[in-house]
Amino acid sequence: MSIRRQCYEWRNVGESKNFLITPPLVINNQANDVILNRYPISAVNYKVGEASEKQFWRVVPIQPNQVVDIFNGDIGNNLDIPGQLKAYQFIVLDGIAVYPETFNAQIIVNTTRYFQDPDRVPSRMGGISGNAVPYPNGTPTLRQVALGLNGGIGGIINYDFTDGLNPPVIIKPGDRWAVEVTNNGEVFPYPEGSVALKTATDVGVARCFIKYLLIDGADCIVAQRLIDAGWPLTVENLWRYKQDIIKTHLYAGMAELPEEIANAKRKV
Amino acid sequence: MGIRKQLYTWELHGDNTSGKVGDSTGHYPTVGVEHSILYGEFGYVQPARQTGLVREDEFIVLEKIASTPGISPYEFSVDAVGNLTRWTPNIFVNIIIDTTNYYQDPQNVWSSGVSGFASPYPRNVQDEPYYSLWPPVYVLPDQTVDVRYTIFNDIQLSAENEAWNNIPQATMLAGVFVEYTLFNGTDAMIARKLMNLGIPVNVGTVENYRRLLLKSRIGN
């Protein structure tokens, strides 16, 4: 029974197979593009470009128009199974952010895509753009990076979704959900085979962040009651509903008794 | 005594060596493994390494956690004489109450927690964190709270590349920040009472309850 603020972050970072070897300092420049149920371990590469090179850091390129599922897309940190809610869980998805600005992010619940174009077709760009919801806030644009200005001036700020998605996306018990990112620009960050993939800084790492409220256990029943009554599913409303339940229990039995009972003869 | 706003900071600094495996042993945390900021073996932890047991006359409301932002190990900086002046640990932070992890991933199993990008520390002028710990986490009397970090960038393996020759003690390599409100004594009792009534526990509600109690006594 709880209401917990959760988050999940995806990155297009692979992991060198050197970390699977003990000791890791042998020459092996192979990497896994996908890492399950954790984040990849990394380090500065050893002697890049030299004969003794050993790889410990690699960014996986995302091709133009490529769509990547951040849970099960076979790139970067992934999960074993798709996101699916148990019978006693609700999710209130209220925050999403993506980088770089040429990427878009789409929320999918069961078979429905959240963001759509005005003609009611699911967003052809692939959802909300990194220009609107940069991650992290204040991140430099790719043009600033290309000009070498990423250290000194401000980047893109999230002004339009400062409070997240409002209203949020409610995902109900048993629903399947996913988040996809789409690359609408050039190959990011560099083409396959480029040495720069092995020396990329943070501006070369694509990422997507989601933030949600996980309501489970007895609170899930409260959430269902709020939805049935048409109330927004917020922390404050959940608290308020529980307060009311407790209050009614406190006063239970304190009401005036009906006259016939109050005046009835006492029986021993 | 009363209600106190508390904070706790864990920091990992250099050890005035190159950081290579042969030069430095036992100073840097093993990567991919979680360590406690309260009693772990690395960085500035409490000298006696006490666990975070909440006493029977205390009540804690955990309100903020943050850590060093950044992902790539190539975000490092070195000064003219070869001192490492900046490092990106690629760190995640998790909260553990007794044996339960606060953070779990969408497949409902343990996750590393929240990253420094989502909730940065130290926070620069341009940083607008996406993540805030809302609702806050209550830690009740006789429960044990722990905050654990996991670092994914291996500084010792990186040192083998010889991009720097020294990691000065002045260089902060990783940090975790925790902010909480500590209610103790009678205020902890009030906090517990409010929680049982389903009322949010914060400084305002506890002070208000105390005012109501005093008022009812004066009235009698």
Helix and strand arrangement:
The complex is a heterodimer of chains A (268) and B (220).
Chain A: E1 2-11, E2 15-16, E3 31-32, E4 34-36, E5 67-69, E6 76-78, E7 83-84, E8 89-99, E9 103-109, E10 112-113, E11 128-129, H1 142-146, E12 169-171, E13 176-183, E14 207-216, H2 218-228, H3 235-251, H4 259-262
Helix pairs in contact in A: 2-3
Chain B: E1 3-13, E2 34-36, E3 52-53, E4 58-67, E5 77-78, E6 84-86, E7 91-97, E8 100-101, E9 114-115, E10 137-139, E11 144-151, H1 155-159, E12 172-184, H2 186-196, H3 203-219
Antiparallel strand pairs in B: 1-12, 2-11, 3-11, 4-10, 4-12, 5-6, 7-8, 7-9, 7-11
Helix pairs in contact in B: 2-3
Number of domains of chain A: 2
Query: How many strands in all of chain B?
Result: 12
The proportion of strand residues of chain B reads 25-35%
- Rg measurement of chain B, Å: 21 Å
The low-confidence parts of chain A are none
**Helix percentage range of chain B:** 10-25%
Query: Which structural class fits the helix and strand makeup of chain B?
Result: alpha+beta
CA-based shape of chain A: elongated
The main β sheet of chain A shows up as: 6 strands, antiparallel
Q: Could you tell me which chain pair has the largest interface and how many residues each side has?
A: A-B, 62 and 53 residues
Rg on CA atoms of chain A, Å: 25 Å
Shape of chain B: elongated
Order of helices and strands of chain B: EEEEEEEEEEEHEHH
Please tell me the overall pLDDT of chain B: 93
Q: Major sheet of chain B: size, sense and barrel closure?
A: 6 strands, antiparallel
The total of beta strands of chain A comes to 14
**Helix amount of chain A:** 10-25%
Mean pLDDT of chain A: 90
Distance between the termini of chain B: 27 Å
What share of residues are in beta strands of chain A?
A: 25-35%
